[in-house]
Amino acid sequence: MVGLQEDRSGTLRAIEYWFPWMAKEFETSRRTKLNVGHRFEDRHSLRSELVQLIENCNQCDMQLYEAAVRRHAQQLAT
User: Running DSSP on this structure, what letter comes out for residue 58?
Assistant: First the structure.
C-alpha cells in the first residue's frame, strides 16, 4: 500500500480498503497530530526554477516518487 501526503483522503480510502482495522487509528492520529511542517514551503509554493533545480539534482528520487504516484492511483482504482 502506498500513501501520499498530498492525497490524504485517497490514502485514508486505501487504508480503509486494505487495512480496515487500522483506519480508525489512522484517522484519530491524523486529527491529533501537530502539523509540524505547516510553515514550510512545498513544491507548489516554491519558484518554478527552484523546483526544476531540485528535480534535476534528484532524478532517482523523482523516478521513485513517480512510481509511487502511479501505484497510489492504481490502488484507488481497485
Answer: T
Q: C-alpha cell of 49?
A: 526554477
CA distance 35 to 31: 10
Q: How far apart are CA 62 and CA 68, in angstroms?
A: 10
Q: Does the global pTM surpass 0.85?
A: no
Q: How many helices (H) and strands (E) does the chain have?
A: 4, 0
Residue 68 cell numbers, joined: 509511487
For cell 486505501, the residue is: 14
The secondary structure element, H or E, covering residue 4 is none
- Mean of pLDDT values over 43-64: 92
DSSP assignment of 23-56 equals HHHHHHHHHHS--TTTTS--TTTS-HHHHHHHHH
